[in-house]
Recover the amino acids of this structure.
């Protein structure tokens, strides 16, 4: 072989850690989905936990846990957290926190909604049968749990101060909200597992989607500014010649000076 001919070396393919986590979590999510559709140890676990009848054994826990689980309810939890995201956007002088929240919720609703409709699983309150799939239900995966993972995971990602503490609290809330739904007979254990994995997938893919989401957000902002009526245009955005309109005022009377004061009477 000619010495001048060089064989190119095989270039090492670098795989990011995010890609590895995405593949692992997606694989686990698919395993849980298949384990719910077909009989598997996941369903055996669901049946055994359901037979513990925790809600009837410990009725005193019902009202506190029923209130606590609202931390995972999408609408109220998002409304409560929304001022914090607005504050972060104001502090950073960027709409990025709000764009992240909106993008994450859209991806979450679409991805979880598709699986809910596709599996059609019924929950413990509707049936004692753990294998009740394709029956028009919408219980798998858990929306409470996936929403808790995404919402508090975003707060942990955007937190500046006490970030490690916020991360620990986000994990704690996500885990305990899921366990509470099992106690309340709202979800099977496998629903909770699916919710955790579905929420993690959204957090993993979110940085990949943000460049496109920010382009759309900036385009919408530019379009809104062009469509903004003239009367609502901020003063700072107007030209200098029309930024301030002088309002004529009544002319004040001009005083020529104090009148002379007579100090003496008429001479005799």
């Amino acid at each position: 072989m000619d010495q001048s001919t060089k064989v190119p070396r095989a270039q090492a393919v670098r795989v990011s850690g995010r890609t590895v986590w995405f593949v692992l979590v997606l694989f686990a999510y698919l395993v849980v989905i298949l384990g719910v559709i077909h009989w598997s140890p996941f369903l055996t676990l669901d049946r055994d936990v359901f037979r513990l009848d925790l809600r009837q054994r410990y009725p005193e826990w019902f009202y506190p846990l029923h209130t606590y689980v609202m931390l995972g309810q999408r609408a109220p939890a998002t409304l409560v957290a929304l001022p914090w995201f607005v504050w972060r956007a104001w502090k950073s002088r960027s709409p990025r926190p709000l764009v992240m929240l909106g993008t994450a919720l859209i991806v979450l609703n679409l991805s979880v909604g598709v699986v809910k409709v596709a599996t059609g699983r019924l929950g413990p309150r509707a049936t004692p049968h753990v294998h009740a799939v394709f029956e028009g239900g919408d219980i798998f995966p858990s929306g409470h749990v996936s929403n808790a993972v995404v919402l508090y995971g975003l707060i942990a990602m955007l937190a500046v101060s006490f970030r490690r503490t916020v991360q620990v609290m986000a994990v704690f809330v996500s885990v305990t909200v899921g366990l509470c739904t099992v106690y309340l007979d709202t979800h099977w254990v496998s629903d909770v597992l699916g919710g955790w994995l579905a929420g993690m997938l959204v957090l993993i893919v979110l940085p990949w989607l943000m460049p496109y989401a920010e382009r759309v957000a900036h385009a919408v902002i530019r379009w809104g500014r062009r469509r903004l009526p003239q009367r609502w245009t901020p003063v700072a955005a107007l030209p200098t010649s029309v930024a301030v309109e002088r309002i004529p005022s009544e002319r004040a009377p001009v005083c020529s000076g104090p009148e002379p004061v007579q100090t003496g009477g008429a001479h005799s």
